[in-house]
Every structure is written in C-alpha cells, then in structure tokens.
Amino acid sequence: MCATVCSADSAATVASYRCRIVEHYWVNQRYKYIRLESKAPIAAMTRPGQFYQLSCPTTADAQPFLLRPMSVYGAGPESGRIEFLYNVTGVGTRAMATLPVDGHLDIVGPLGNTFTFEPSFRRILVVARGVGLATMAPLVRQAADAGTAITAIMSARTAGDLMEKEFLRGASAQVHAVFDADGTSSVEAVEALVRRLIDTQRPDAVYTCGSHRLLMLLQRVLQDHPGVQGEVAMEQRMACGMGVCLSCVRLFDCDGDKQFLRVCREGPVFKIREVVGEVEFG
Fold first, then answer.
1. Keywords on this record (predicted)?
2. For residue 3, what pLDDT is reported?
3. For the chain, what is the mean pLDDT?
4. Any known ligand binding at 155?
5. pTM for the full predicted model
6. Long-range contacts of 216-221 (CB under 8 A, 24+ apart)
7. Is 19 annotated as a binding residue?
8. 2 marked ligand binding residue
9. Is 71 annotated as contributing to ligand binding?
10. Is 245 annotated as belonging to a binding site?
11. Is 209 annotated as a binding residue?
C-alpha cells in the first residue's frame, strides 16, 4: 500500500500562524537560517518531514504570488519555536531573505506526513544533498534522542557548501562527505559507497530527500536489500500545499497498481521503492 493521507488529528492542527522573526542570517553564500516564534504551540504539532507554506513578502524587486512550501528544519524546545533553512534562489526566497529581525512572517501548516522511524532501530543511513539537509535534520535529531546510530552521506558542490554542523546540530554521526568538485559525488562513486555501508553496517532504514539522482540510485541499491526500509522526502512545485489544486501529483507503484498521488497530501514522504519514472522533480 502506498503512503496514506495525514491523520485526522494532524490535519485538524493545520492553520495560519503569524510569527515574529527572532533570528535571520546567512549560513553561507547560498543558504539563510530563519527562526520564528508563534504564540501557538506549533512545535508540539510538527513532526520530522512535514512542511509549512510560507507567505513571502512583496518587495520592489520581487512580487511572489503563491505561498512557498518549505520543510521544517527544527521545532522547539520552546512551544512556539519553528526554524527553516532555505536556499535563496528564486523570487519568493529572494523576497524572504529581506525580512528583518522583529518583523513578521505568516505560515500555514503543519502539512504533509512524516518519516517512519522506530526507536528500536539500531542504525539509520541518511543520504543528503542541498536543501535536503534541512528536511532531514529533525529526523537526525529524533534518531539521536532515541540512541540510534547514524551514518550520513553528505553531498555538496564544494566543501564550503557542506553544512555538516548545521545538519547534525550536535548529533553524533559517522559522516562520509562527497563533492562535485573532486568527483566523489558521482553516481558511480556514491552507489559504491552506499552498497559498502549497507553491506557492512546493515542499517534498519535509509532516508533521502529531493535529489532525483540519489533517489534512483537508492532505488537500485535497495532492490538487493529487501529487509532495509527506504524513504524519500520528495520536493515538488506546489500551489495550495493541501491537495486541492493537484499541481504536485506524481506517479507511484502501490503494490503493482500505478497511482497518481499528491506530494503535498499523501506525502511528502514516500517509500523509495514506490516512486515511478525518470521525471525530474528536484
């Protein structure tokens, strides 16, 4: 069976929240960090893998029309605290990057489902690149709090783009860094690394986010390891973020039955083995 719609309890918490900007700064030349505070207890409502729709401001140079979906980078420990780590790349994020501390930002959520994680897991393997670091950071924290060992393959253009500290946020992990600059992030090199780590460490689950190349790579590898759980948090262009507009549908194989599912509603987390096709989405 393919991924299911969010539970009624989760859906009931979806609302619009006006948040105060507490921190907002550049992490490196491409990414910014923003911490928001709400009067509502949104941290307790939010689970790893979920996202919010953010209302980016209108500026003289940018007039974003739609809300922008953004994965949660962190929630808590304060009840109203929510954090995002984002790549400043388009009209919406360029406008968002201008927001000042003590300003306000409206967000809608939490939206989507969550990663499947069991506290009994002995070890997990996370394969992250780019903005996928932000999506999986809460999962890494959840695993660390459960005492689960973590192995991370982190891919980036250069060492300066890696953001290892920002990804782990104090969690202990065995990190394997690969880069475009030296060729270690090639499909062949990463596939060999993933196969070696699964063969030697036998993780209970493998997780990834966003990158179509990494998703297809892991799908091939997991064919040889039926006992290893595999999940992907998918990135897709969205309009409403709630499953109404159908702009984010993707094709999945649900036990032999091909189905179009909404990434925002039935996802964004899906089983790696269920994703169909070679369509670019990230």
1. 2Fe-2S, Electron transport, FAD, Flavoprotein, Iron, Iron-sulfur, Metal-binding, Transport
2. 53
3. 88
4. no
5. 0.89
6. 216/278, 217/187, 217/190, 217/191, 218/127, 218/194, 218/272, 219/272, 219/273, 219/275, 220/191, 221/191, 221/194, 221/195
7. no
8. no
9. yes
10. yes
11. no
